[in-house]
Write a structure and sequence with these properties.
The complex is a heterodimer of chains A (about 300) and B (about 260). With about 300 residues, chain A is an all-alpha fold. Helices cover about 60% and strands about 0% of the residues of chain A. The radius of gyration of chain A is 25 Å and the shape is flat. In chain B, helix 3 runs parallel beside helix 7, helix 3 packs across helix 8 and helix 8 runs antiparallel to helix 9. Chain B contains eleven helices and no strands. Chain B is globular, with a radius of gyration of 20 Å. Classes of the chains: A mainly alpha (about 300), B mainly alpha (about 260). Chains A and B meet through helix 1, helix 4, helix 5, helix 6 and helix 7 of A and helix 2, helix 3, helix 8, helix 9 and helix 10 of B.
């Protein structure tokens, strides 16, 4: 019995160590494979096959849902909300539909403090109701008869308020972005999103550039990733030469741009870089280049 | 009453003897430990994905235990013929049914409770933790969910074979969870006779989504308002009573 106890203890310690080391080994192995440009050898890649693209897209959607406090209104709910808005408009109710879905979070509040439970308990400033007005109740609940208790409960239980994470809370989306690119290294949008959150929202430009460089290894022709690297270098690191280099590379790789919008945007960034580098002539040249078709200006 | 409690205790002992509970507990342990060990971009204190995935796992495992355990309570009695000596004693069919239901409820609630305690401990290790009021509320709703699941599984086991009852329980749960939002919107938007029809369907289906507090727990939303919480508990009691009543009707007609 004594020996059995020791055996069980040893097994438990080994299993615990394995559990704690496994993610570390797995992550390091993935980074190693990514650096070598052979992510196809990754275990998830090989296990899931093409189905990983579906899971990758799902992970990216989950990241977006996390940004919205875990609940992203379904298409049915959005349709219902839009119908409510339309009804309220046609009834000439006096409400403000400029909800200011303030994605820059410029509410004029002191955002230096961490967001905690209290904000949500207060029906906080970040809750922007879709379709306000007399058609909806206090919690944004649709006008359902009080007798229809189950429908009322369904509305209450379902979180459908529009809410965004802010500040350090935004780091909660990162695991899903990590898994999105891990499952599909060719998911360029996930790389760009990850670079944006890390570099520009969470103020970690070095980690962002490292992450985006991994993306470049798997997607060498992805101009969007170069553009994001340029933006991080321009805005966060203030390394204008590096930013210029990235934007130029993005421009070289940009092919499919029927309305010229992406190219015009890149030129604006390049002009900004030249401006910061003290070369106003080149800056003006890039600003003054012929615009593409469909340009309303 | 005493006979019902004896039957219930017997069911709890059966859970402890079975391996399912230990396997699921170990799976939960593995999953949570793996999630806790992950490091994303060198940023610490990321916790919501642990709470989200962890709660989903504990919910799913508890649900599986509740369904498989409760669905086999009566069929096992019938197949092994142990129902004869039970009914020969002064144990009525109603007592047998309620005793088995209580036993399934106790067993699945015990499993859920242990998983939940473990989950709360892990969730508190990192990040913002979970508000106590929300923790208590979601636990109580979880127990109500176990009761509803057990009652429906027992009913299905009297209508179908053991395997079919389990399959239908799972299909019903996932169908409700995936489509109930759309059904609610359709019910609200419908008019006239269509509205009556949609409301009838809406009231008949078991609303498993009322009990799922995963998003509130993981993303630090506020708890449900007290009236909603008590309404859900009352709904559970009513639904369980109706399910047991229909089960009793089926059991009464059964010829042994």
């Amino acid at each position: 019995m004594y020996r059995q106890g020791i055996r069980i203890t040893v097994y438990v310690i080994l299993i615990t160590a394995l559990l704690l080391l496994a993610p570390l080994i797995d992550n390091d192995l993935y980074v190693f494979l990514a650096k070598k440009g052979i992510v196809e050898k990754d275990i998830l890649y090989r296990t899931l096959g093409e189905a990983r693209k579906v899971f990758s897209a799902s992970a990216a959607v989950t990241a977006d849902a996390y940004l919205h406090g875990g609940s992203y209104p379904s298409d049915f709910e959005l349709l219902h909300i839009m119908e409510e808005v339309h009804e309220n408009h046609s009834d000439d109710h006096d409400h403000d539909h400029d909800h200011g879905h303030d994605h820059d979070h410029d509410h004029g509040h002191d955002h230096g403090h961490a967001h905690n439970h209290e904000h949500r308990h207060d029906g906080n400033h970040h809750d922007h109701e879709h379709g306000g007005g007399a058609g909806r109740g206090d919690n944004g609940v649709a006008a359902i008869s009080r007798l229809n208790i189950l429908l009322k409960l369904g509305e209450i239980v379902n979180i459908s308020r529009h809410f965004h994470l802010y500040g350090e809370e935004e780091k909660e989306v990162l695991p899903w972005i990590y898994y999105a690119v891990r499952l599909d290294p060719h998911n360029v949008n996930a790389y760009v999103l990850g670079g944006h959150w890390l570099g520009r929202r969470l103020n970690r430009p070095e980690e962002a550039l490292t992450f985006l460089k991994e993306g470049i290894r798997s997607n060498p022709d992805a101009w969007q990733i170069y553009e994001e690297m340029g933006l991080i270098s321009l805005i966060e690191e203030k390394d204008y030469e590096a930013a210029l280099g990235y934007f130029m590379k993005a421009g070289e790789r940009l092919r499919d741009d029927p309305d010229g919008f992406d190219r015009r945007r890149l030129r604006t960034f390049i002009a900004e870089c030249y401006e910061k580098l003290g070369d106003p002539e080149k800056a003006e040249r890039f600003r003054g280049m012929p615009r593409g078709p469909g340009d309303g200006a | 009453m005493r006979s019902m409690m004896v039957l219930a205790r017997h069911s709890v002992k059966a859970l402890i003897r079975k391996k399912d509970f230990y396997v699921f507990f170990l799976l939960l342990l593995v999953m949570l430990a793996f999630l806790l060990s992950e490091n994303f971009f060198g940023i610490g204190d990321i916790s919501r994905y642990i709470k989200d995935v962890g709660y989903f796992c504990l919910w799913l495992f508890s649900f599986i235990i509740a369904v498989t355990f409760s669905a086999k309570q009566l069929p096992e009695e019938f197949d092994s013929k142990t129902v004869y000596p039970l009914l020969a004693k002064p144990v009525s069919r109603a007592h047998l049914l309620i005793g088995r239901f209580l036993g399934s409820l106790l067993a699945s609630s015990l499993a859920f409770s242990l998983f939940y305690v473990f989950y709360c401990c892990i969730a508190s290790l990192r990040g913002e933790g979970i508000a106590v009021s929300l923790m208590i509320q979601s636990y109580m709703l979880g127990v109500c969910f176990m009761g509803l699941t057990c009652a429906i599984s027992i009913l299905l086991s009297l209508l179908f074979t053991y395997s079919a009852a389990i399959a239908f329980s799972f299909i019903l749960y996932f169908a409700v969870v995936w489509f109930t939002d759309a059904l609610r919107i359709m019910t609200i938007s419908s008019h006239g006779i269509g509205s009556v029809f949609m409301n009838v369907i809406y009231y008949i289906i078991p609303h498993y989504e009322f009990y799922d507090m995963r998003i509130r727990l993981a993303h630090a939303w506020e708890p449900l308002p007290p009236w909603a919480f008590f309404a859900i508990v009352a709904y559970t009691l009513v639904y369980v009573l109706i399910a047991l009543f229909i089960s009793y009707g089926r059991l009464k007609k059964r010829v042994f």
